[in-house]
Write a structure and sequence with these properties.
With about 375 residues, this protein is an alpha/beta fold. It is about 40% helix and about 10% strand.
């Protein structure tokens, strides 16, 4: 009888305890534990169709064994090559993303047949035959229907490939109006203002469309850098391409990711890219501190700026890190800075450049999660 009473008492206490918990909200640690996804590690690679499958399997296995989760593959927009490599990477446990040079289309044979598709600088020179900075800057105009449709067609083709998680937009911008400060000596440049030869796009289509709405000609402006409508016009043209790409890839059950400049205000200033206003699932800002003569603490600063600008959106931020020349200690600190400042992951440029020391840092960081 005594045992029965004890059991009855315990059951009663348990019942009331459950009732007490009906309206109880989980504490902060429970909520965080349930909602935070594992910190993701990515890398970029450029594919060579001449390489055999075994060599790629070996490379993919190396990345996976050292803690990487995802790989962004540049196949020069060849869906067949992507379709060949994606299942190999997936079999090794890597998430696959189709990396595309978007508005910059170096070596695109279709584009080369259309000189009118290229951006035109304020001093009237087309990127078809006058490339800003480097020979591979073959930027297309995002306003012209034919050039933007060409890019979006490529996006659609890649988004239909099996075993691919996203289409990853790179060079989704105009040419640099300002270079990162650390690169200026390389080109023997001083950029204290918006220089005409690096200011795009002043093609006939852009000028006519802007003039129709705002009743002034950008070519005739004394100082176009301070005309906010002209700046916004170009920001909106890039945004329009991104948003249409978003619709295309989602229709094909993929997500949209993008490589962008460090944080929205800087990207706006440097390349007409305001990515916190885009329809995009994940951004990988290229927070390459060495390009800006900054230390690894700047990785945290720029990460935090981007995370704050994305508040209220559904876009995730994963910090891009430039690994060449980076010590293991610096890479460790850069990863910590990204994590501490709200990034959902880190991506390393690029896979083949990762040293054994750096791979060990990534693996150790992964195991410490």
């Amino acid at each position: 009888m005594r045992i029965r009473l004890i059991i009855l008492g315990l059951l009663t206490m348990s019942m009331f305890s459950c009732l007490d918990n009906i309206d109880r909200k989980p504490d902060a640690t429970e909520t965080i534990a349930e909602s935070v996804a594992p910190f993701k590690y990515w890398t970029w690679i450029t594919a060579d169709p001449k390489r055999n499958d075994d060599s790629y399997v070996e490379e993919f296995k190396k990345y996976k064994d050292n803690g990487l989760d995802a790989i962004l593959i540049n196949t020069n927009t060849d869906p067949n090559l992507l379709g060949r490599l994606a299942p190999l990477a997936k079999k090794e446990g890597l998430e696959v993303h189709a990396w595309i040079m978007a508005m910059n289309r170096p070596g695109d044979s279709v584009v080369r047949q259309h000189p009118e598709w290229y951006v035109v600088s304020r001093d009237g020179k087309s990127a078809y035959d006058h490339r800003p900075y480097v020979g591979y800057y073959e930027f297309l105009c995002p306003t012209r229907e034919d050039s933007r449709n060409h890019v979006l067609k490529l996006v659609e083709e890649l988004s239909k490939v099996d075993d691919v998680a996203s289409v990853h937009l790179d060079y989704i911008r105009y040419p640099d109006i300002f270079l990162p400060i650390g690169l200026l000596p390389k080109y023997d440049l001083v950029q204290n203002e918006e220089l005409p030869e690096y200011d795009f796009c002043y093609c006939d289509v852009c000028v006519a469309e802007f003039q129709k709405t705002h009743h002034r000609n950008p070519r005739e402006m004394e100082n176009p850098a301070i005309d906010m409508e002209w700046k916004q016009f170009r920001l909106n043209k890039i945004r329009s391409v991104v948003n249409e790409a978003y619709q295309i890839v989602h229709k094909n059950n993929k997500i949209l990711t993008a490589a962008v400049f460090p944080y929205p205000e800087m990207a706006d200033h440097m390349v007409r890219q305001r990515w916190d206003k885009w329809d995009v699932d994940v951004v990988l800002p290229m927070i390459y501190n060495v390009f800006y003569n900054e230390g690894t603490d700047w990785v945290g600063f720029a990460t935090r700026q981007g995370v704050q600008d994305l508040e209220g959106t559904e876009t995730e931020l994963h910090t891009g890190i430039y690994v060449p020349g980076m010590s293991g200690e610096d890479l460790t600190q850069a990863i910590r800075e990204a994590k501490a400042n709200g990034a959902k992951g880190v991506s390393f440029f690029d896979g083949p450049a990762l040293t054994e020391e750096q791979l060990l840092v990534i693996k150790t960081s992964k195991e410490g999660q």
